[in-house]
Fold these 4 entries.
Entry 1:
Amino acid sequence: LKIGNPFRRNHFLTDFQNPKFHKINIAWQRGMTEGRLTQAFIDEARSKPLFDVLYANEFPRADTIDDKGYVPLLTERDLRFTEDDIFIGRCRMGIDPSGEGQDVTSWVIRNRFKAQIIANEAVSSPKSIAQKTMTALTYFNVQPQDVYNDNFGEGANVAQELAMSGKRINALNVGDVASDEKFYNKRAEAYWAIKDWLRSGGELVGTLERWKELLQIKYRVEVNGKIKIMGKDGMRRQGIPSPNNADALMLTFIDGQIIENRPLVTNTRFDQYEPF
């Protein structure tokens, strides 16, 4: 007797396809029929990770899963593009630093509605990253508390350089524990937030060529049920370049959604307002 969910195409799938086994598939439709689940519960579950696996009991397609159990996080139909590069309201900036070599340092800016890759740098140092960040803060009117920097490797000294200039940003380790226990770490949690944001109407400034790294991000579900994003080392072993632009966008989702800080209007007399 085997009981489980179809997280991977492994021994469980082999036995599921074996005609000698008698299969009982208790998917969400049966729960609805028996009165154990409500439509409201299913509607909420659809907005959460892994609905197809946990509730519809569907195995990943054979053409999407690799030999390590990873599947693409996003497809082309998830990506929406715009040419409008005017940003209004509160914005966040993500910085994915690099040093010398094939990697590049990437800067991405995002508000609630769209995101843009605003700069790349082939050869970086903490000082050069800090200098470009200072310029971007002024140009896009981003507050230091809304800047997120990967503090690993070359990025460890970037926050210090900016602090010396009076700008204290968020220097963080994306490998830290996620706030939601469904995720392996903060990186996985933030990437899943990108998926939700794009499917809710978020747009990317530019073209698919500019953002193609997003299609190379893969995830899998570990034995403990946590969602894990393939790391950069694993991507390199598969011949996939480091996703610097995608990681910079990911950093803007570390603290969840952007909340506007707008003052409340207390005077309700319409005739006292300037129409524009």
Entry 2:
Amino acid sequence: MAGEAARSFRATVQYDGTAYYGFQRQRRGPDREGVSIQQELEEALARLAGHPVRVTGAGRTDTGVHALGQVVGFTIEWPKGRGDAALLRALNSSLPPDIAISALSEAPPGFHPRFDARRRTYEYRLLNAPVRQPLLRQRAWHVAATLDEARMNAAAALLVGVHDFATFGRPPAGDNTVREVYSAEWRGGGETDDGRMLVFRICANAFLFRMVRSLVGSLRKVGDGSWSVDDFADALSARDRQRSAAAAPAHGLYLIAVEYDTQATQSPD
């Protein structure tokens, strides 16, 4: 593709994070130890372009975290005449089976997947059942104790609005731990064999490191009666990382969607 003008793209990526050390590029060890989602995407693009291609992501998901709506950006020499759908097919044919591009389009000038994002939505899936279910072991957190969904929702409602979430995470840069949460709710995810799936969905302008997992770990304490709703409120207002319960495991967490302003989602003519 030498001589072709470089074009910028945005793509929506789905992945099963079980085998990866998170989204962000890691140091490469023997036998591909430390391989990340970003590395796999960059290697697939390099095979198409014939030279290194840098990928930027909207969210730095942790080791073992999954995604249905990660958004990435990259620049590559790809002629318009070949069509964007052909680029999507070529990328998917070069990616491993646990990563897929679900949508791809030309990006507007100056688009940045992380800094232009206005809302991010995560889900956490929790299997509330007396006995673990092996087929869900990398998809949901198994909690045997009976959980009170209404109590957990009463606590989750306290998260909506602008708050300092220092108790539940640390900032990716600087020291600002204030975030705005637009919605936070537990809901049933359907019955399973001898149990039920509970899904925590939270949407915010941005998140701290470990914020969703720390919130879920603390809300679980409310659900099993170890904490009262007031205990949860006190932990939130304390702005003290030591007041959070242990974070829920990574394998129950999913990045569902990243939203942008209308002008940031439109492709140039």
Entry 3:
Amino acid sequence: MNLKYIYRPIAKDLVQVDSLLNESLKRTRYRSILELNSYLLESKGKGIRPALVIISAKACGQVPATIASALVKIASAIELIHVASLVHDDIIDQSALRHHKPTFNVKFGEDVSIAFGDYLYAIAFELIASCKNTDILSCIAQASRTLCEGELIQVCERDNLSLLKERYLLIVKKKTASFFAASCQVGAIFSQSRKSTQEALKEYGFNLGVAFQIIDDCRDLIGSKKKLGKNPGLDFKMGELTLPVLNLISQEPKEKKSIIELLKNQSDERAFRNLSHKFLNSSALEKTKQEAFLYIQKAKNSLGNLKDSPYRRSLSALADYVAIKIDAGYSGYQG
């Protein structure tokens, strides 16, 4: 299963999103900014969030031609906000690679990267404002604020070796799930669907987002640089406790002291490898998978009342795609 197949019903719409992103980012006469924009366009991600906007809108029924261009604008804005958050995340996490390429902070410096992230936010909200829909503006603005709250809480909880699972889930729900939920919700708002449908799609996106982040955190612990497109172990190095590690501590109580000692050695590559090895050889891996799959199932259950269509099937397939990613990044490290 691949994204190209899942996105097939909206392939033409995604071409329009790419076109608008190119147009929006090249609308400047400053060479230095064009260089930044060009580098961004060369480093595209999977486009899950803008795809969710369009698929959700079309899963609710026919999108009138009169609002089709506005839908593309919102999908593009969602992608820009997401990318802006990644640019800032990479600075905060001192990340060196993303999509197999140097991050903006490595290539252009932190000062430029901070300003560039702000610049992307500005373009995004300019696109949103041009649609003149206060419900959509409110939805995205609230989700953006929640995303930032999640990031702030996560940074403030670094090096907290007593972090509770509930606190971890709060961070995930704010930082990742809220924006997945908003992506689906604004699509449903565009289609002028019933409130119950809007809530169902919001719930789908929310649960998909939680699963996505749990799996991403798991892959950071057991993944390879080649498969991830970035260096693994960033959470470990930044002192961030994630669900895989929390499950490892709870599933292996006799190993708690040694696990804590490993977590204190954030700059030690051997400590990270030992932690990864412990996780791979414990029941914590299966427990983490089961918890992620529970959220995947909740997401798919939220689609129950949607009429069958290629778009509904795409949403279900996207949930399955996210589920299999937990094994796709596995490095096979065994000690």
Entry 4:
Amino acid sequence: MVNKSIISLILIFSAIWPLSIFYNWPSDYGIYYSMGNLIDQDYRLYKEAFDTKGPAYFFFLKLIGMIIGKGVWQAYISLFITTLLYLTSLCFIINKFVKNDLKKIFLIILSVASLNYQDALSSIAIFQSALCIFSFYFLINSIEAKNIYSYVISTILLSLAIFTRVDA
């Protein structure tokens, strides 16, 4: 019952939070979106347009665009997946360290509340945070289980977080 409640809460909030893109298109997200969609053989990041962010989020947006097409729905789905990754990464950590179901639900509600006053401007930070949290999760698993595969996954995720924003 608790797992279904947590999954429902995460899916509902991940679907609601990006709806702001339909009435308020933030300028930074527009830059991320444009740079991600313009990556092809004739357009090169950091040559035709420069940004201080790494290329990982731009390629993530490009991948979503290749799968579902370009437009406002691509922006919505991208923000939905970004939010879903972030909240799922927090669930992994919470499930790892918290045994009490009531505390789990409380921490998930706090995690959802942490995005209350955020908008699409913070999408790249949310994406980076999800990668960092998943990286730490797999690092902890690699130490506990002495599993080299978890360590490799952790290293890859941390590298992607660094390629999203250097301050990872």
